[in-house]
Amino acid sequence: QKEVEQNSGPLSVPEGAIASLNCTYSDRGSQSFFWYRQYSGKSPELIMSIYSNGDKEDGRFTAQLNKASQYVSLLIRDSQPSDSATYLCAVTADNYGQNFVFGPGTRLSVLP
Amino acid sequence: KAGVTQTPRYLIKTRGQQVTLSCSPISGHRSVSWYQQTPGQGLQFLFEYFSETQRNKGNFPGRFSGRQFSNSRSEMNVSTLELGDSALYLCASSKGTSNTEAFFGQGTRLTVV
């Protein structure tokens, strides 16, 4: 059974701080990794994708991947109240297929 | 550029009925995946279609089926509805090639009574 684990939270950080979200996965053959943000009552919105070990930065977001440790993280710098949402980690072992295994999500609350 | 369009947005059905949901992907995208989201189970993969062929399938009973048309639009059908089928059904659109990203539609909220 392929599993993706995340701390459910809630993770509370003050406005302007760095939020750190973590995700571990069980399938060592996993190839592609994604972070989605989901506001309450809305559909998931893609934030970042990462495919190789190391860091990938996009604006205030940095994704980090360590395949040896089966670990992927998302850092949000200068957190804003509008970042308050559930963050979903998605993993797929198939480079072509979009058959994601999702983690349960981490609820982030950014306090003004 | 138009996003992923799912119709209808809301549905209420009675146990035992069947339902068909529709998803129109982003123009140029050939892969459509379907997911079920519930508070208890989270987001679970149903199946993926690419170029009118089912490419991947999750662990759902045969009551859940789908298809894809030549214009890449996809439909999902659930027969003999059960109360537990109440969920948000999401489709995701992607190019379906190596290392490509998937984008979700707004979802269809299905309530079975």
Short account of what is shown:
The complex is a heterodimer of chains A (112) and B (113). In chain A, 0% of the residues lie in helices and 53% in strands.
Task: Sketch the topology of chain B as an H/E string, one letter per element.
Answer: EEEEEEEEEEE
Terminal-residue CA separation of chain A: 40 Å
User: How many strands appear in the DSSP assignment of chain A?
Assistant: 11
Strand content of chain B: over 45%
Total number of strands of chain B: 11
The major β-sheet of chain A equals: 6 strands, mixed
Span of the ends, CA to CA of chain B: 37 Å
**What is the number of helices of chain B?**
0
* Mean of pLDDT of chain A: 94
- Which blocks of ≥5 consecutive residues of chain B have pLDDT under 50? none
Describe what this molecule looks like in 3D.
The complex is a heterodimer of chains A (112) and B (113). With 112 residues, chain A is mainly beta. Helix content of chain A is 0%, strand content 53%. Chain A contains no helices and 11 strands. In chain A, a hairpin with a 2-residue loop joins strand 6 and strand 7. Chain A is globular. In chain B, the strands form 2 sheets. In chain B, strands 2, 4, 5, 6, 9, 10 and 11 form a 7-stranded mixed β-sheet that branches. Chain B has a 4-stranded antiparallel β-sheet with strand order 1-3-8-7, with no helix packed on it. In chain B, strand 4 and strand 5 (42-50) form a beta hairpin. In chain B, 37% of the residues are buried. Chains A and B meet through strand 4, strand 5 and strand 10 of A and strand 4, strand 5, strand 9 and strand 10 of B.
